[in-house]
């Protein structure tokens, strides 16, 4: 790859009723990974697992032309108040069906059939790509190394999501 990486502005949202800035290992792992890859953290936040709290935060980032990527962690399972897919899906202009399929394929190699309980989600909204990941650091690592590192890299061929969210002339002011 001889061309330089085009760094993306990434917002990271942890969805949890119990995690704090000091106990949010998955959110922090995502921040470190995206920065190590050459991207920039726009903002990191934690919200409780509530459809409207999640939706409000993600919608704010989607509406902000400076945010190109939103990564969420948590709230994608079937237990308790897990509601990230319900909160985010209605905000999407297009879903990336293959993201959940590929994530579960990769995850199956690590955790077996338990991966069917992952309702991770990907999509595009207002020139922003959104990926909703499970809350475990292991799942974030699987998604990052198996999918996101390449798909957020503008140099990855034959295609990537970075080139869909990089401002073109006339876009985003």
From TrEMBL:
UniProt cross-references to PROSITE patterns, sorted A to Z: MOCF_BIOSYNTHESIS_1
Name listed for the protein in its UniProt record: Molybdenum cofactor biosynthesis protein B
Similarity comment: Belongs to the MoaB/Mog family.
Entry's Gene Ontology BP terms: Mo-molybdopterin cofactor biosynthetic process
Stated role: May be involved in the biosynthesis of molybdopterin.
Lineage: superkingdom: Bacteria
Domain MoaB/Mog positions: 11-155
Origin species: Halomonas halmophila
SUPFAM superfamilies listed in its UniProt record: Molybdenum cofactor biosynthesis proteins
GO CC aspect terms: cytosol
Gene3D superfamilies referenced in this protein's UniProt entry, alphabetically: MoaB/Mog-like domain (3.40.980.10)
UniProt keyword annotations, A-Z: Molybdenum cofactor biosynthesis
InterPro entries the UniProt entry points to: MoaB (IPR012245), MoaB/Mog-like_dom_sf (IPR036425), MoaB/Mog_dom (IPR001453), MoaB_proteobac (IPR013484), MoCF_biosynth_CS (IPR008284)
Pathway in which this enzyme or protein is active: Cofactor biosynthesis; molybdopterin biosynthesis
Listed Pfam families: MoCF_biosynth
